[in-house]
Amino acid sequence: MNFQQRYILMMRRQRDFRWGDEYVPSTLATVREAPKGSRVSRLNSRKLGRTLHALSTPERVFTLLALHHPGLFDFHEQKMLSPSSTIHPLYGHSLTRGIVFAPMVGTLEIAQEIGLEHSLVLVSDDDGNRGWQAFPYQGDLLLYIRSPDGVAYAVNWTIKYMQEDFTERRRSAVKTRAQLKKDRLHADLRLRLEEEYYARGGIRTIQLTPDMLDPVAIANLNLLWGCHTRELTLEPALLSDFSSDLSVAVKAGTPPFETALRYAARWGSGDQFRTRIYQDIWNRGLQVNLLKRLHIDHPLAIEGGDLIEVYRDFFQGTPS
After folding, report:
1. What is the DSSP string of 227-259?
2. Pairing of β 204-208 and β 152-159
3. What are φ and ψ of residue 27, in 5° steps?
4. pTM of the model
5. Do the bridges between strand 80-81 and strand 120-124 make them parallel or antiparallel, or are there none, so unpaired?
């Protein structure tokens, strides 16, 4: 896909998005669209009712963390940063009815202010006339969160493999001293552009890398995610009773698997009760320490290890 095709595709997907539409990322996690060498993944979310597109392993990890947040009500991955002035990302959502948002300043204006040469693309219109257009930059993950007191806000996550990747473009390439200086300046200005773009709308940008997360937490999130979409065919009332008994047993120090065995001995379907354990943890109905490995044939730690509390700064909105 060439530069012009990417531009047309991004603009068609994102230029006219309004709440109520199904969100489509600027770039899909496919071989045709994703950057060369990307480790892409698609995640089917029950909470959001659509497939999410992660363009790297770190994006996948942080997508799972975001989806685990009980206040997350929507999520826009690979969101276009509009070159021209546009509406605020939260404008028009039912949770922000009555709130007046100032328009977002476009990246062209911000780039001029900070001294960044904005990316351009040569585009042909329907009549065959060709002209230069600002090629849109795109962010990584934009979270929409409802606070406990009902206030809706957004947080922008920009994600790299390592912290050093934020300071230099194409860090693994062999470069001259002049090219190294140029790539470091570009990385700095590109990050400033995104931060300023969202800051004008009162949205905080946070730089994240996988080494900021506990490896056990990452493993647990992946384990829980693998179970969260499995369909359970047992009666809802039976599953509710199981979850209640499970919670009591776990608090008493009984391994979760024992409760599953007891129910399976009477009702069969042992795999469904085992799956329900993981689903209850994922949905936060069963609170356990996710900084400890989940072995359901052992007692689970229930003190501490709430990932939303441990990593609460990642979810903070713009300080008042």
Report:
1. HHT----S-HHHHHHHHHHHHHHHHTT--HHHH
2. parallel
3. -125, 130
4. 0.92
5. unpaired
Residue of 86, 65, 84, 83 whose CA lies nearest to 209: 65
**How far, in Å, CA of 12 to CA of 200, rounded?**
25
The predicted-structure confidence for 233-292, as pLDDT tens digits, reads as follows 999 999 999 999 999 999 999 999 999 999 999 999 999 999 999 999 999 999 999 999
Mean pLDDT of the chain: 92
What the block records as the tokens of 190 is 């590109």
In 260-273, which positions are buried (b, 16+ CB within 10 angstroms) versus exposed (e)? Answer: beebbeeeebeebb
Which has the higher per-residue pLDDT, 57 or 174?
57
Q: What secondary structure letter does DSSP report for 104? A: B
Residue 53 near residue 23 (C-beta atoms within 8 A)? no
Give the fold, CATH level 3, of 3-212: Trna Endonuclease; Chain: A, domain 1 (3.40.1350)
Radius of gyration of the chain (CA): 23
- Domain map (residue ranges) of the chain: 3-212, 215-313
Question: Phi, psi at residue 171, to the nearest 5°?
Answer: -65, -30
Q: What is the DSSP letter of 145?
A: E
Q: How far is CA 93 from the centre of its chain?
A: 19
